[in-house]
Amino acid sequence: MKLTRIFAVAIATLGLAGFSGVASADAAAGKAKFEAACAECHEVADFEGTSAADITATLKKIVAGQQKHKTALKLTDAEIADLAACLSAGK
Questions:
Q1: Is the pTM of this model over 0.90?
Q2: Is the CB of residue 82 less than 8 Å from the CB of residue 25?
Q3: Could you give the CA distance from residue 30 to residue 46 in angstroms, rounded to a whole number?
Q4: How far apart are CA 46 and CA 55, in angstroms?
């Protein structure tokens, strides 16, 4: 029983840590990055209704070369979080 409680607390802590990373994302920085790296081919409206988590997952796959994209992207985790915050907010 005690091990189960420790496991549950550890999972909750990791979940909150992951969530706090998204919460600290900078949508304004994401918009600037979008204009510099994405706006030539995409519009913010292209991502309407897509969650930040889904955008993050897609961008990470593109950066890792696991998902096809017109151009190779080199983005840091912070830039990905910023872009996801911007695009999921529709800004």
A1: no
A2: yes
A3: 15
A4: 11
